[in-house]
Design brief:
Length: about 300
């Protein structure tokens, strides 16, 4: 009886751990492809291409930290049952790499960034050229599994590339004439590629993940920089606790505006299906406002 009780308890706990994941549907029953994605970057790009034609689940819950996420047993089960599993890269999501190794024999594993040039900065989607490559990799994988929808997927990819082209032009124009070009980010080093591409100078409080230590010395250095250069706006990540940014703002008098890394997403934005393009438009608007750029 004791052994039976332990087994029952394990099943209950495992079921509880699975509560977040929507169950991927069986393509044979509803005609849709069953896709599981790692986090929001993979999710939003896949959804942009497949739309409502696929059942797309996401392993990473809203507001979770993608760099150090620890998957539940339910995550492994979901990937084994999926027809396609999409994640960004081994560097960005080492936990997803481990899950991919345990994927089902009929699950196609898609590493979206496999064709993107290697870099020490894992936030490759902050360069629109890289996003094009990732989207094409995902589209090709979906079309291979789903030949009857290949034409629709190709059309969706073309539309997405048009949006990326327009977005790039908006960034070039919108950030060409600004009173300041210094972006002080009270968060991790997620926007380095974006800043470099559009001629901005980035100072971030932490490294390339949230695991970086916010040392007193580093914080004091950032405060000194803000005062020395008379920076009027600091930026923070929308899903992070606002207290640190509020402390810096209190010391310097700077206003606070959010920037969106896309890797983490709030429950509200997830439920509203806010897209990659939407997030990057928000970022442009806040950069223009904070740096006082001419329209």
């Amino acid at each position: 009886m004791k052994k039976l009780g332990i087994i029952v308890l394990f099943v209950i706990v495992a079921a509880g751990l699975c509560f977040w994941l929507p169950k991927p549907a069986d393509k044979k029953s509803d005609g849709k492809l069953a896709v599981v994605t790692s986090g929001y970057v993979a999710y939003t790009l896949t959804r942009q291409l497949a739309g409502d034609l696929a059942d797309i689940a996401m392993l990473l819950p809203p507001n979770a930290e993608p760099h150090s996420f620890e998957p539940t047993p339910g995550a492994l089960v979901a990937v084994r049952q999926a027809e396609v599993f999409v994640y960004v890269s081994d560097a960005f999501e080492p936990w997803a790499k481990d899950i991919a190794a345990g994927a089902g024999k009929n699950t196609q594993v898609v590493k979206a960034a496999i064709a993107v040039p290697a870099s020490a900065d894992p936030h490759i989607w902050m360069d629109f050229d890289n996003v094009r490559i990732m989207a094409q990799t995902i589209e090709e994988a979906l079309a291979g599994q789903w030949p009857e929808q290949a034409e629709t997927l190709a059309q969706n990819l073309a539309k997405f590339n048009e949006q990326l082209t327009a977005l790039d032009e908006s960034y070039k124009k919108g950030l060409s004439a600004c009173q300041s070009r210094e972006v002080v980010h009270i968060g991790h080093l997620a926007f380095e590629r974006l800043a470099k591409k559009y001629g901005l100078t980035l100072t971030a409080l932490a490294g390339t993940s949230h695991d970086g230590e916010h040392s007193v010395r580093r914080l004091a250095g950032v405060v000194d920089l803000i005062k020395k250069h008379r920076i009027e706006t600091i930026f923070t990540e929308e899903t992070l606790s606002p207290r640190l940014a509020q402390t810096v703002a209190g010391e310097t008098g700077a206003q606070i505006l959010p920037l969106y890394t896309v890797e983490g997403v709030s429950k509200q934005d997830f439920d509203n299906h806010i897209t990659y393009i939407d997030f990057m438009k928000r970022n442009l608007e806040n950069l223009q406002r904070g740096l006082k750029c001419q329209a």
